[in-house]
Amino acid sequence: MTSPALLLTFISGLTVAHYAAAGPPEFDVLKEINALKAALEAIDVPKVAFSARTSKGGAYGNFQGDTTLTYNAVITNVGDAYNPPTDVPKVAFSARTSKGGPYGNIQDDRTLTYNAVITNVGYAYNPATGIFTAPVKGLYYFTFFAHGGGMDRIQLQLKKDGTVVAEIHDHPSNADTADNAGNAVFLELEQGNQVYVNLVAKTAVWGEGFVTTFSGVLLSKS
Q: Could you tell me which residue ranges the C1q domain spans (predicted)?
């Protein structure tokens, strides 16, 4: 693309040459050139500029194959033409209960420990306590499911730092022998927020197999 400055120089040269060959002009050549210069300077040229640096914590490289070097710490990004990588840690877990059969009908509420881990990327879920602790601020997605006998009431509450944010509930029935329930929710969490499932007093779930599960994943970092 020809820059306005080069274009101005070229046109100015043609203008002077034309009037030199044609004789004394009837109007001021410099006046025409200045008007042309003002018109070119008024052209709306978008401002685009960026600078970025690596922030990798030390020595970085020695991979087996070629790798695009990501300059992940932006210094300047005028025009937003540079697309820095989104450094989102991988955080995801799924766990199930392994309790040997029906579990619950306890006199008090308690945190349901999904003690058999299926996936625990980032190790933010603690199977011993049943508690997920957010490692970073961001948007998370959680699901929880339960299977239970028809004569047992199912009631599980998904809690964030002690506050109920979602619930599943099924009344006991003589008409069927088993029930299933599930729910899901998006949560904006701060680093250190805790999410867990509360088993309500005098309710029960089937605690064996792969039917009573708890899962969560980090979708985006804030």
A: 86-222
